[in-house]
Amino acid sequence: MNSDNKKKKSLYVCSSYYQVFLTLLKILSRKERADICLEIHGVETAVSLSDSLIRISGVEKVYVVPTTDKVYPYIQRNASFIPWQRRRLVRHVDKIFEGKFDKDKYDEINIYWDLSYVGTYLNIKKIHYILHEDSLNSYKHIKKNRPNYSYIYSRPRIKFQLKKLFGIVIPFGYSKYCDVIEVNDIEGIEIPTDKVRQVVRKDIENTLTREEKKSIFSAFFSDEKKEGVSGEEKRVLILTEPFFLTGRLPSKEAQIKLYEDIIDKYKGEGRIYIKAHPRDNVKYEEYFKEAVVMQKNVPTEVLNFDENFKFEKAITVTSSAVQGIDGAKEKLYLGPEFLEIYKKY
Q1: What residues does 171 pair with on adjacent strands?
Q2: φ, ψ for residue 169, nearest 5 deg
Q3: What is the distance between the alpha carbons of residues 272 and 227, in angstroms, rounded to a whole number?
Q4: Which of 15, 84, 99, 332 has its CB 3.0 to 4.6 Å from that of 42, i.e. a possible disulfide?
Q5: Which domains does the chain have, with CATH numbers?
Q6: Is 299 helix (H, G, I), strand (E, B) or coil?
Q7: β-pairing, 196-198 with 235-239?
Q8: How far is residue 226's CA from residue 273's CA, in Å, rounded to a whole number?
Q9: Containing H/E element for 36?
Q10: Which tens digits make up the pLDDT trace of 188-223?
């Protein structure tokens, strides 16, 4: 950070609630000045959340990037960006930053996903950035959990020829404009380690005071929204994932059947609490009326900042978020193989 009287600051670009959570940990632990940019396709409540974030110490401005169907599908398909497509995306992002993105305002530009709106913009404009692992230890499971990016691991010569010819943005820090890749645990990651630095996220969290943790909890999860958490009740937490939405299961019915079977197996061990993934659009309260369906637009790790959230078990199929839950006696990661049973529905 600059030592000038007018210190520069950091920018954090977030496209998920977990990324917002991690950003707040970093800002508070580093005692820094920062702006936050929320991409609304992954942070659906970005407009209302921005009002809460601006009250966090160190946060000076919150920008919101709205979804546009004229831009986002190109990013999602990792399509080549012909000039008019690039210009459209650049105009879209510049408008969000009140006319033009000013990289000189920031000492650091931090993103979590190279193919986000702003990540793609940075690559088009040849602006250097720091890439952070987009969820907890997710870079250990890219090949299994993100098969649509298999081109990264096959025929590398063709991969880089395509990038040269068409300007395709290659995710996971392969871009020459990505200077550093920050991960929670370097062991077993599935990307080259020449740019990687390990920063243990739990260590960052442990530097925060009780009041700082409370401020993060309040930004996401007001006291009125604890969904009936009570003292000594035994609980089982299920973390859902949007398998139908992402194409990993063939139908919504298959996804519901999957969670029905998990609930039937573990409901005898405590009251079922369902924490849906923010992009999961299944209305679980309609199917599992005895369960407590928690507010979904909250990063799971925020539950650690309230002592009432304790569980006998925390269960997921492939979500790495289960690793970050402190208040679970046992954590069950069923694995991607578990999905195979439900692909017939």
Answers
A1: none
A2: -85, 120
A3: 12
A4: 15
A5: 9-206 (3.40.50), 224-344 (3.40.50.11110)
A6: coil
A7: unpaired
A8: 11
A9: strand 34-39
A10: 999 888 999 999 999 999 999 999 999 999 998 765
Order of strands across the sheet with 235-239?
292-293, 271-275, 235-239, 311-316, 328-333
Strand pairing of 271-275 and 292-293? parallel
Which DSSP string corresponds to 185-219?
--TT-SS-STTEEE--HHHHHHTS-HHHHHHHHHH
Given a contact cutoff of 8 angstroms between Cβ atoms, the answer to whether 133 and 54 are in contact is no
Angle, nearest 10°, between helix axes 17-30 and 46-53?
A: 10
Q: Which of 297, 136, 158, 107 is nearest to 220 (CA)?
A: 297
Residue 21: burial class (beta carbons within 10 Å; 0-12, 13-18, 19+): buried
pLDDT for res 57: 95
CA-to-CA distance for 160 and 158, rounded, in angstroms? 6
Structure token pair of residue 248: 């990993």
Q: At what angle do helices 117-124 and 83-96 cross, to 10 degrees?
A: 120
Residue in the block written with tokens 């831009």? 71
Q: Is 48 helix (H, G, I), strand (E, B) or coil?
A: helix
* 89-144: pLDDT as tens digits: 888 889 889 888 999 999 999 999 998 889 989 998 999 999 999 988 999 988 88
